[in-house]
């Protein structure tokens, strides 16, 4: 059974914000159910992740200040959201959703979090609407529990996974791969194990060729036993912030390439949704729903 983390707290009051359309977290499950892609019993509700789990990946002082709502104003501005208890709780639900989805992926091959992909949060900072890094915390949890020994994080959001790179800098058991817009946010990049900066205006064929080449390269130098996939859909040509020119079919083929690679190598994979800022919400939701459909096809659900 395909397992999908979802919590009502994902739908935060800030959902109407121009740059962060949280309404998609409500519409993705609705669309999946409407199209009959999944049934209601595929969804599970995460809990608030505990503090010791968070600090496996994040600085204890930063986490304490976040939980106490005592972050300096400068850090709150860097995050981009007004800090509130509900916002912090939302992030903790997202973290637990990704951890639990990782455990389901070990059982079923692939599992999802409707939210997540909060890859701009580093070890001791939040940034770009990300307070805590869900896939980084889940990766450290799997390592800590000895449920995985070598983890690959595939980040194909249009923005570099700078926070993920920051957390795992010099970590021999985690390989971070980010393929992102060169001239896009964040403007000061961190160093992933493999960074592929992309020029503005890149189309389907050029993007997919480069992705295939670099996935092959990674799997020749690193032999993971678990993968995380940040499947942002802000690579679409309709995206207001992305600056790339991929079609919806190109985005679907991207997912197919990544997931086929994982399936063919027997690699369990957890998928978080990441970014998407197209003018029309249907373009965002349909692209995300295609990721679910592709995973179900590849993994035989």
Automatic annotation (TrEMBL):
Pfam families: Hist_deacetyl (PF00850). Residues 19-290 form the Histone deacetylase domain. This is Histone deacetylase. Gene3D superfamilies: Histone deacetylase domain (3.40.800.20). InterPro entries: HDAC_classIV, HDACs, His_deacetylse_dom, His_deacetylse_dom_sf, Ureohydrolase_dom_sf. Keywords: Hydrolase. Coiled coil: none annotated. SUPFAM superfamilies: Arginase/deacetylase. Belongs to the histone deacetylase family. It comes from the Bacteria. Transmembrane segments: none annotated.
């Amino acid at each position: 059974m395909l397992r999908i983390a979802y919590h009502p707290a994902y739908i935060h009051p800030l959902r109407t914000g121009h740059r962060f359309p949280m309404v998609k977290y409500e519409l993705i499950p609705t669309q999946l159910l409407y199209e009959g892609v999944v049934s209601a019993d595929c969804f599970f509700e995460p809990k608030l992740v505990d503090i010791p789990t968070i600090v496996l990946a994040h600085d204890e002082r930063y986490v304490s200040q976040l939980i106490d709502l005592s972050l300096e104003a400068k850090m709150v501005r860097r995050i981009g959201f007004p800090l509130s208890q509900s916002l912090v709780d939302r992030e903790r639900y997202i973290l637990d959703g990704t951890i639990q989805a990782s455990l389901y992926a070990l059982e079923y091959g692939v599992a999802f979090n409707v939210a997540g992909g909060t890859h701009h949060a580093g070890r001791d900072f939040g940034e770009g609407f990300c307070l805590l890094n869900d896939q980084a915390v889940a990766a450290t949890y799997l390592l800590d529990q000895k449920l995985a020994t070598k983890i690959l994080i595939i980040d194909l959001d249009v923005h570099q996974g700078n926070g993920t790179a920051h957390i795992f800098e010099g970590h021999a058991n985690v390989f971070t791969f980010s393929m992102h817009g060169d001239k896009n946010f964040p403007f000061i990049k961190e160093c992933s194990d493999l960074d592929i900066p992309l020029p503005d205006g890149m189309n389907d064929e050029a993007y997919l060729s480069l992705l295939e080449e670099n996935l092959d390269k990674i799997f020749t130098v690193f032999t993971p036993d678990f993968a995380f996939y940040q499947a942002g859909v802000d690579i679409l040509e309709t995206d207001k912030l992305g600056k790339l020119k991929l079609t919806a079919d190109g985005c679907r083929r991207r997912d197919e390439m990544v997931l086929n690679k994982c399936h063919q190598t027997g690699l369990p994979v957890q998928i978080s949704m990441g970014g998407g800022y197209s003018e029309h919400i249907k373009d965002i939701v349909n692209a995300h729903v295609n990721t679910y459909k592709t995973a179900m096809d590849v993994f035989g659900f």
